[in-house]
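Design job #97: recover the sequence.
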């Protein structure tokens, strides 16, 4: 007889493991099927995020920032270090230890919550049965009242620049190069391209980023994107906009690229080529033909606003469904679905999901841009404040960028906050709280912010919405 559960989650990434733990907390008998194998061939829970995404990329961003600062920030503090070197084995090894700590941590959490873990590939069959093809070659079928699909996403491959894992690489490859490439090409100036391009640039690689779109960071506020573009230029990231890759060929340990822009065709030779043109929902082998779950035109699992697929007891969350491909979006969907299954009031507010790019300077935003509000015909007012006038940022020698707050012209409700500068990945949190509580710029302006902190930029931007910022002209 097959094992029977209240909830089976297929996929143990951020969306899936949050769903599983919350379901178990609610007393539901829960199982997770996950196929990810670590380098040792053993199960490595946590999906893209913990294995080759959020956490390892931030580990390398932090290590490379420390190195870069030695020559580029510390001299301004009167500190000089000569002959600084990077031991790449330790650099990459530290990242791997962190990955292991966290993937193992998820396994511990599963044990503590009495979640049954299956190491293999799950396929949804008709009637909420799940066929597991174990990584040990064994097959078995389990079933549940509810199945949550959380199969995540994989990098998009370009047909004329196929990943070979050696010269043409994806995000996973760019997280474990065994030498700093002399010349790194990056296709796509999105979050992943900019973050991983920054890592290797800071270690000395010549980095050329080709972006097909004519606009830099089109989803961000243009004032914020402009500052970021200038700063990335200072770092030495050579970002070419409106540049479309047309050919990439590996020959004699080099990648020969052709790209096209408004001036015609150009050739470029690099040692490694990171293709970071986006990710696609991953559903290969996940669904039997008669399970009833549908995919949209982009291959994502079709769900309603409650992450329900329309098939009785079948839900889907995270990168495999519509919405931003962000770990925290998946966390919230996973927990919300577990709560709906458990008879509670799950909740995801898609309007206040924060976006963060962990470059130097950091970029963060939540809510609407001016462009979106104009299109929607919503009247608004704007306040902004530069980090150059924030004592703490100047003391840190990181006084770059600004906070821009957008509020409704009549109600004063905060509609969007956009930032570029030091520590904005953390500063965005208080703005999300304010927006979630439907706060106004006036509320934020009246909240005491500690001095001297970077958060004063948020406070002053709120004051500036009403043209009463103290440390700048209004
Ligand atoms: C380099 C990089 C940096 C990133 N940085 C950030 C960041 O800083 N912040 C952020 O919010 N997001 C970041 N992301 C995005 C983030 O990693 C994803 O949004 C997140 O991992 C999606 O979670 P998920 O659970 O939906 O899917 P995934 O993390 O992709 O997990 C899906 C899991 O399901 C498994 N699986 C798939 N199909 C099956 C099956 N049929 N049977 C069994 N198992 C299956 C997979 O093996 C995997 O373990 C980054 C991504 C990359 C690549």
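Job complete. Output follows.
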């Amino acid at each position: 007889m097959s094992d029977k559960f209240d909830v089976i989650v297929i996929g143990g990434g951020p969306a899936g493991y949050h769903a599983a733990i919350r379901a178990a907390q609610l007393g539901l008998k829960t199982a997770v099927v996950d196929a990810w194998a670590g380098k040792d061939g053993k199960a490595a829970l946590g999906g893209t995020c913990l294995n080759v995404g959020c956490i390892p990329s931030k580990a390398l961003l932090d290590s490379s920032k420390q190195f870069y600062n030695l020559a580029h920030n510390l001299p301004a503090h009167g500190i000089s270090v000569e002959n600084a070197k990077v031991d790449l084995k330790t650099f990459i090894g530290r990242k791997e230890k962190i990955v292991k700590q966290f993937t193992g941590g998820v396994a511990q959490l599963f044990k503590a919550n009495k979640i049954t873990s299956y190491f293999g590939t799950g396929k949804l069959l008709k009637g909420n049965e799940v066929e597991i093809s174990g990584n040990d070659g064994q097959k078995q079928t389990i079933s549940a009242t509810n199945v949550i699909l959380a199969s995540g996403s994989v990098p998009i491959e370009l047909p004329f620049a196929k990943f070979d894992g050696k010269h043409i690489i994806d995000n996973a490859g760019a997280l474990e190069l065994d030498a700093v490439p002399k010349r790194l090409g990056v296709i796509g100036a999105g979050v992943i391209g900019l973050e991983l391009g920054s890592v290797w640039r800071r270690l000395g690689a010549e980095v050329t980023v080709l972006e097909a779109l004519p606009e830099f960071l089109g989803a961000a506020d243009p004032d914020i994107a402009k500052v970021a573009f200038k700063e990335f230029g200072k770092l030495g990231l050579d970002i070419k906009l409106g540049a479309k890759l047309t050919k990439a060929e590996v020959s004699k340990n080099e990648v020969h690229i052709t790209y096209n822009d408004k001036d015609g065709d150009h050739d470029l030779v690099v040692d490694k080529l990171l293709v970071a043109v986006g990710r696609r929902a991953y559903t290969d082998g996940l669904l039997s033909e008669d399970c009833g779950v549908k995919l949209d035109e982009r291959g994502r699992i079709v769900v309603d606003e409650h992450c329900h697929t329309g098939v009785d007891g079948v839900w889907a969350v995270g990168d495999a469904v519509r919405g931003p491909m962000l770990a925290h979006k998946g966390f919230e969907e996973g927990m919300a679905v577990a709560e709906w299954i458990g008879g509670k009031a799950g909740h995801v507010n898609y309007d206040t999901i924060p976006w963060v790019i962990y470059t130097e300077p950091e970029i963060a935003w939540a809510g609407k841009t001016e462009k979106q509000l104009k299109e929607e015909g919503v009247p608004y007012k704007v306040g902004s404040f530069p980090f150059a006038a924030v004592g703490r940022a100047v003391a840190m020698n990181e006084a770059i960028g600004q906070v821009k707050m957008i509020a409704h012209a009549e109600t004063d409700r905060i509609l969007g906050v956009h930032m570029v500068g030091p520590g904005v990945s953390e500063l965005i949190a208080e703005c999300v709280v304010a927006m979630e509580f439907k706060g106004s710029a006036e509320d934020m302006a009246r909240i005491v912010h500690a001095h001297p902190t970077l958060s004063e930029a948020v406070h002053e931007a709120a004051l500036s919405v009403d043209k009463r910022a103290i440390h700048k002209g209004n």
